[in-house]
Amino acid sequence: MSLLLLNSQKKIEEAELKYSTMEEVEAGIKLKTFGGLSVETTGTSIHIESTDVHVHEVVITEGVGEGNKYLYNLDSGTLIE
């Protein structure tokens, strides 16, 4: 792999948001989970000391479990525009 390609990949990785390092996120961010659920952030966040990550509360917006809330590592989801 060329050095140019490696540098490009590093810049892309650095540009990605890392929600697990953010102490808080705004409400209303829409994501699709790895399992296919459509969720939206509520604005509530919690720091998990044992793994040193921040997780954020989401609410299921459609389908099975609609309205249920749970804590989720947003880094594993896909943003919906």
Structure summarized in a few sentences:
This protein is an alpha+beta fold. Helix content is 16%, strand content 37%.
Task: State Rg.
Answer: 15 Å
Detail the poorly predicted runs.
1-15
| Strand percent estimate | 35-45%
H/E order of the elements? HEEEEE
- Overall structural class, as computed from helix and strand content, comes to alpha+beta
What is the number of domains? Answer: 1
Counting DSSP H or I runs of 4 or more residues, the number of helices is: 1
Largest sheet: 5 strands, antiparallel
Percentage of residues in helical conformation: 10-25%
Distance between the first and last residues' Cα: 33 Å
Q: How does this model look, in words?
A:
- A five-stranded antiparallel beta sheet has the order 4-3-2-1-5, with no helix packed on it.
- The protein is 16% helix and 37% strand.
- The chain has one domain (18-79).
- By secondary structure, it is an alpha+beta fold.
- The model is unreliable at 1-15 (pLDDT under 50).
- It contains one helix and five strands; from the N terminus they run H-E-E-E-E-E.
